Automatic annotation (TrEMBL):
InterPro entries: HATPase_C_sf, HATPase_dom, His_kinase_dom, HisK_dim/P_dom, HisK_dim/P_sf, Sig_transdc_His_kin-like_C, TCS_sensor_his_kinase. The keyword Membrane applies. Keywords: Kinase, Membrane, Phosphoprotein, Transferase, Transmembrane, Transmembrane helix. It is an enzyme of class 2 (transferase). It comes from the Bacteria. PANTHER family: SENSOR HISTIDINE KINASE TRCS, SENSOR HISTIDINE KINASE YKOH. This is histidine kinase.
Length: 439
């Protein structure tokens, strides 16, 4: 999972957890807030009542007609105010829940009770608000709070996602730049436009590391090229001398077999050196890509060239080529070597009475050419390394796979051809080459 996805997931999960915790605590918190708000309103009404009594006198509430008490309910019995004369020894100052009987119904109120003295008499003021009304307000507050919290969570998740994307953009640029590098020599160091020191340090470290890798690859290519070139001359001289000894009638019969073995060893060594030199020259781009190569026709030429070798090994060769495709910027000699090496390996490591099929067909992205054999196959653990020139594998008969496949991979990379290999042990191997459409 990508770092940005992990950060976004963590941010979303933490906010959801916080939301759920608040959701569990919300009824209690909102009820307390609603109750505090109701108490504040009762206190405000108490102040207003005292102000009215001070301005208008107690007689405006308690008159001879009403006796020594006054009571008033609003239309829906949600609130009430009562004022009555009490004994001088009684003192009440509280806010608490209380049951009251209203119109033959018992209603629970939040009641503020307060005593005061006026004109030598003591009065009890009570102001009440229905708990049902407070509960309705509490539910409404809970609903609004729930929507508000949900909106805040969603907004912060999107904001965090956008911020994480912006914050990690330098890292994304670094990763994309590395993904586009098919070979260390194609890497170009670039400055990173960010003020995040961690990303600057990472970018500078990668630039320095890739510079060291490029230098190491360059030295390796130069070494292989130079050594290969220098070794070819003495090997050719030795080969000529041995061939002269073979053709010399004075050479003893006992030495002829040894000379032939030595020539065979020199020939194998020469092929290895030429393979290394070919790889080095391709990687150093010493070959031109100025030819238009017809891929189906090239496959037919390879099949024609190698047909006798296949017959000698009792392997049947089949062509299944449809459509037409031309690779505009290519090197025909290198592409011939690419296909020849793969088909030659398919013959070499095939079974008696086995078969090889060269199948080609146009695709949406170019042309796909497959070489399918019924040979001994390649072990699954060896597949990731078959194109490495630094690893050597051996077939069941003890013969080495050599540098044929590294050459194939180098030529394919040089032409921008995608190569994929699938294999089943003792059943066969399939090489697929995807030739691209060139713009």
């Amino acid at each position: 999972m990508r770092l940005q996805s992990k950060l976004t997931l963590f941010s979303a999960a933490s906010k959801v957890i916080i939301f759920l915790v608040i959701l569990l605590l919300l009824p209690t918190l909102v009820n307390k807030v609603a109750l505090l708000n109701a108490d504040n309103r009762l206190l405000q009404k108490e102040e207003r009542m005292y102000q009215i009594i001070e301005d208008q006198g107690i007689e405006s509430f308690i008159t001879g007609e009403t006796g020594n008490a006054y009571g008033s309910y609003n239309l829906f019995r949600e609130e009430f105010i009562s004022l009555e004369e009490i004994s001088s020894g009684k003192v009440v100052n509280s806010i608490e829940n209380s049951l009251r009987k209203v119109d033959n119904a018992v209603v629970e109120y939040r009641v503020l009770s307060s005593t005061f003295d006026l004109g030598g008499k003591r009065y009890l003021l009570e102001i009440g608000r229905s708990l049902d009304t407070i509960g309705d307000n509490s539910k409404m507050l809970q609903t609004y709070a729930l929507y508000f919290l949900l909106g805040v969570v969603l907004i912060t998740i999107f904001v965090d996602q956008a911020y994480n994307k912006l914050l990690l953009r330098p890292l994304t640029l670094i990763v994309k730049r590395l993904q586009r590098v098919e070979h260390p020599s194609a890497f170009t160091p670039k400055e990173l436009n960010t003020n995040t020191t961690d990303f600057l340090y990472l970018n500078n470290t990668i630039n320095a590391m890739m510079g060291q890798i490029q230098e190491a690859f360059q030295k390796e290519k130069e070494f292989i090229g130079n050594v290969s070139h220098e070794l070819l001359t003495p090997i050719s001289i030795l080969q000529n001398r041995l061939e002269n000894l073979l053709s010399d009638p004075e050479t003893p019969e006992t030495l002829l077999e040894k000379l032939v073995d030595n020539l065979r060893t020199l020939h194998r060594l020469k092929n290895i050196i030429q393979a290394l030199l070919l790889i080095s020259r391709i990687e150093n781009e010493q070959y031109l890509k100025n030819e238009a190569v017809n891929i189906p026709q090239l496959a037919r030429e390879v099949a024609e060239e190698i047909e006798e070798r296949a017959e000698a090994r009792e392997v049947s060769l089949h062509l299944d080529l449809t459509g037409d495709f031309t690779l505009a910027n290519a090197n025909q000699s290198l592409l011939f070597t690419l296909l020849f090496n793969v088909v030659n390996n398919a013959i070499k490591y095939n079974k008696p009475q086995g078969s090889i099929t060269i199948k080609g067909e146009p695709t949406a992205t170019g042309y796909e050419l497959s070489i399918i054999d019924t040979g001994v196959g390649i072990a699954e653990d060896q597949l990731p390394h078959i194109f490495s020139r630094f690893k050597r594998f051996h077939a069941p008969d003890g013969e080495s796979h050599g540098l044929g496949l590294p050459i194939v991979n180098t030529i394919a990379t040089f032409h921008g051809i995608d190569v994929s290999v699938t294999s089943v042990k003792d059943q066969g191997t399939t090489f697929k080459f995807q030739f691209p459409v060139q713009g």
